[in-house]
Every structure is written in C-alpha cells, then in structure tokens.
C-alpha cells in the first residue's frame, strides 16, 4: 500500500489569513491544495470563486486540486484553468454530458476528475472510467465542512476499485469529507489514493504534524 496523496482543503483555513495558511501548506508534506468552489445552487452554501482561487495560486507551491460544486460547470472550466487549477473535478450530478465535459478539461491540459455525491452509485462511471483521471467520492453531503463521515464510503471505494481494475484504468480514488486519522487507514485499505482533509488539519493544534501523520499512513 503506497502512502496517500494528501490534499488539505482550504475551505477549513482561516480566510482572514489565507496567504499564511497556504504558505504553511507549502512547507508541509501535503501533495496538493484542495479548493472547494460552491455556488449556493448545486450545494446549499457559497464558499469562494475565481478571485480567491487566483489569489491562492499566487502563493501556492503545490498543485491546485479544484473541486467545482457548482451547477453548469462547463461555463467556467477555462477560467479555473487560467486561475491555476491542475486538476478540475466536476460533479456527475451537475453534468448533462459528462464525457464531453471531461474531454474539455483534458483539452485544457488539466487532470479531469468526477465527484459523486453519497447517494450516487459508482457503477454509473463504468462506461467512462478510462476517461477519468480521478474519482472523488464524497464521504459527507457536499456543501459544508466538519460533517460526520458516512460509513458506506468504504463499500463504494471497494466497488470503484474493482471497476478500475476490470477496465485496466489508471484512475485515482479521492475521498472528500470527514477524513481523520481513524478512518484514513481503513480508506487506504479499501483502495483510496487521495485523502482530502479540512477541519482535521486546520482545526488541529499542529497542522504540520497532522499532515505528516496522514502522510505516514500506507
């Protein structure tokens, strides 16, 4: 089992000291910086948009993992690429023509991700799994940080891992929501590759040590 890719979510950072927190992530063992974009329509919350993403990109030394929790994401794909996104993840539930959306993301020289809400079956991705660089399994209902982890996530990870293996795909599995030191080893055993952690990192007494703790799992 390889060490996980760690992608702390700046949704849980101190927005009044965002540059400071991004610079902390630069110095940490984190691999990516996860940015949750929410529009108040697809999810019942508004986080931040392009200007904040651009501001983070000015200071970030790690790749930006941009998670679009928004309706009609196709309208903004190029804008987020220009704002610094290395990976752009769209929601299965928000895309009428998912394959086309993935092709557009790839044409922008970004990695293409697909996020699944807790109620969405992983089998729905079987026909396009080879076109997906990363599947983000939501282990909480999207929209707010600090929620309780949904236990059915382990089952979904195992099912998705089987689909990836059966199709000889290179797709990574990312887990977003309620990740901590207790469930992280179980998620890795089930087949996860990327762990998104927000509150667990930024609300800890020592975020650098917390990221290091997660990185040692595997």
From TrEMBL:
Substrate binds at residues 9, 67, 143-146, 176-178, 198-199. One of its GO terms (cellular component) is cytoplasm. It catalyses: D-ribulose 5-phosphate = D-xylulose 5-phosphate. Its EC number is 5.1.3.1. The keyword Manganese applies. The active site is at residues 36, 176. Keywords: Carbohydrate metabolism, Cobalt, Isomerase, Manganese, Metal-binding, Zinc. One of its GO terms (molecular function) is metal ion binding. A divalent metal cation binds at residues 34, 36, 67, 176. Pfam families: Ribul_P_3_epim. GO terms for biological process: pentose catabolic process; pentose-phosphate shunt. Binds 1 divalent metal cation per subunit. Its cofactor is a divalent metal cation; Fe(2+); Mn(2+); Zn(2+). Pathway: Carbohydrate degradation. Belongs to the ribulose-phosphate 3-epimerase family. Catalyzes the reversible epimerization of D-ribulose 5-phosphate to D-xylulose 5-phosphate. This is Ribulose-phosphate 3-epimerase. It comes from Roseivirga echinicomitans.
């Amino acid at each position: 089992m390889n060490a996980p890719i760690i992608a702390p979510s700046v949704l849980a950072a101190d927005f009044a000291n965002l540059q400071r927190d991004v610079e902390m992530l630069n110095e940490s063992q984190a691999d990516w910086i996860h940015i949750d974009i929410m529009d108040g329509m697809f999810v019942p919350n508004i986080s931040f948009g392009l200007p904040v993403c651009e501001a983070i990109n000015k200071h970030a030394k790690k790749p930006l993992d941009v998670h679009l929790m928004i309706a009609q994401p196709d309208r903004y794909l190029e804008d987020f690429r220009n704002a610094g996104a290395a990976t752009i993840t769209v929601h299965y539930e928000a895309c009428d023509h998912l394959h086309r959306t993935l092709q557009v993301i790839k044409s922008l020289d970004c990695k293409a991700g697909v996020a699944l809400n807790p109620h969405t079956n992983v089998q729905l991705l079987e026909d396009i799994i080879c076109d997906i660089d990363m599947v983000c399994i939501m282990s909480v209902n999207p929209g707010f940080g600090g929620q309780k982890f949904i236990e059915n996530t382990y089952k979904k990870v195992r099912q998705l891992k089987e689909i990836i293996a059966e199709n000889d795909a290179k797709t990574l599995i990312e887990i977003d929501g309620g990740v901590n030191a207790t469930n992280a080893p179980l998620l890795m055993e089930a087949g996860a590759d990327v762990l998104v952690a927000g509150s667990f990192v930024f609300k800890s007494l020592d975020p650098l040590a917390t990221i290091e703790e997660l990185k040692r799992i595997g």
